[in-house]
Design a protein that fits this description.
Layout (H helix, E strand, L loop, with lengths): L6 H7 L40 H13 L4 E5 L2 H9 L7 E5 L4 H11 L5 E5 L5 H4 L6 E7 L11 H10 L3 E5 L4 H4 L9 E5 L13 E5 L2 H14 L5 H11 L2 H20 L4 E5 L9 H7 L6 E6 L4 H10 L4 E2 L9 E3 L11 H6 L7 E4 L5 H12 L1
Parallel strand pairs: 2-3, 2-4, 4-5, 5-6, 10-11
Antiparallel strand pairs: 1-7, 6-7, 8-9, 9-12, 11-12
Helix pairs in contact: 2-9, 3-4, 12-14
The chain binds pyridoxal-5'-phosphate.
């Protein structure tokens, strides 16, 4: 067996080897739907690109390596990866998830899979005990996000796993906000790790792609079946772009986190700011858990201005110049978002406000520009 690589090497070499045809160091973009067969069934392992494509295979191997899992799967979006997980279950099965879930995940659960007979519970997971109260014999999955979007709550993955294991409940972690550089849920004992690779993994805001990584071979067979049967696969070009992004994940994440720390501290000491949500603060309720399960605190920050009004929030957002107002996160450029009207618009106002997503909340995805430029931009916007 090949020597196990450390993380910074695995993002570059994990699961990768030069292409057998001409030795290309980067996997070629195999822009093909089908593959020649010598006689029926006599082929080189590839028959049809919904089932397998060599560029996608290269990405799937890389995904597995960087999450320290055995099997990686690439999907056409983060949501189609989540969709595939939900298809593991049957009507009547129950799933417990967080109450400040990514809006698109909530919509998929509440508007599609609920109608197909799955029952969802949305609960405040800051305290893992809240989850355990909802478990019964029908509970099949606990769906975690940590840190959560956009309130930056931290869920204690190890406690949830140790509780779920004895009861044969699967634990899945949406690891989009952390990336495997900061947090590796499978190592913490989770069964499934999911990514919107659209964000940090691809890292350049130029692709929509999703990922799942698992260790268990039965689970892997089921997911491979669903991936092929439902067919929500990424094309070879997008697979290539994501693989290219992954190769710099470690250096990007270091700078993302460094910049975010500077900005979180700047915001928290600014007189025009009421509250800053970032797990790196000692005062964050689950700071110690974040410290134990993450390598650093990530580059997503939410905050509310002092007067906590929608008007002031809007003014700040409009005055920012380097921070671009846009959906999404995790790219090299800094973005600003207004969760209540953008990412979380699909969650009823009453529900989102319970979890803190009020109309004055602003969210930053901190990029890797010069920190001085970012702080100057924020400073002028707050004046
Ligand atoms: C963006 C996002 C998703 C959905 O991924 P897509 O690639 O947009 O389909 C899921 N979870 C989180 C935390 C996200 O940020």
């Amino acid at each position: 067996m090949k020597k196990k690589l450390r993380f910074n090497s695995s993002v570059i070499h994990g699961g990768q080897s030069p292409d057998p045809a001409f030795g290309a160091v980067m996997p070629p973009i195999y822009q093909t739907s089908t593959y020649a067969q010598k006689s029926p069934g006599d082929h080189k392992g590839y028959e049809y690109s919904r089932t397998h494509n060599p560029t996608r295979t290269a990405l799937e191997k890389s995904l597995a390596e960087i999450e320290q899992g055995n099997f990686g799967f690439a999907f056409s979006s983060g949501l189609s990866a989540i969709d595939a997980v939900m298809k593991l279950f049957n009507p009547g099965d129950e799933i417990i998830s967080t109450n400040d879930l990514y809006g698109g995940s909530y919509r998929l659960f509440d508007k599609i899979f609920k109608n197909l007979g799955l029952k969802f519970h949305f609960v405040d997971m800051k305290n893992a005990e809240n989850i355990f109260d909802l478990v019964n014999e029908k509970t099949k999955l606990i769906w975690i996000e940590s840190p959560t979007n956009p309130m930056m709550n931290i869920v204690d993955i190890k406690s949830v796993v140790s509780y779920a294991r004895d009861r044969e409940i699967l634990v899945a972690v949406d690891n989009t906000f952390s990336s495997p550089f900061l947090q590796q849920p499978l190592v913490l004992g989770a069964d499934i790790v999911m990514h919107s690779a659209t964000k940090y993994l691809s890292g350049h805001s130029d692709v929509i792609l999703g990922a799942l990584v698992v260790n268990d071979s039965d689970l892997s067979e089921k997911l491979a079946f669903i991936q092929n049967a439902s067919g929500a696969v990424p094309g070879p070009m997008d697979s290539y772009l994501t693989l290219r992004g992954i190769k710099t994940l470690h250096v990007r994440m270091q700078r993302h986190c460094e910049n975010a720390k500077g900005i979180a501290e700047f915001l928290s000491s600014h007189s025009a700011i009421k509250r800053v949500y970032w797990p790196g603060f000692k005062s964050h309720p689950n700071h110690e858990i974040a410290k134990s399960q993450m390598k650093d605190f990530g580059a997503m920050i939410s905050f509310i201005p002092k007067d906590s009004s929608y008007k002031t929030a809007l003014k700040i957002i409009k005055k920012l110049k380097i921070f671009t107002l846009a959906e999404s996160l995790g790219g090299v450029e800094s973005l600003v978002g207004h969760p209540a009207s953008m990412t979380h618009a699909s969650i009823p106002k009453k529900d989102r406000e319970i979890s803190g997503v009020i109309d004055s909340l602003i969210r930053f995805s901190v990029g890797i520009e010069d920190i001085e430029d970012l702080i100057e931009d924020i400073d002028q916007a707050l004046k």
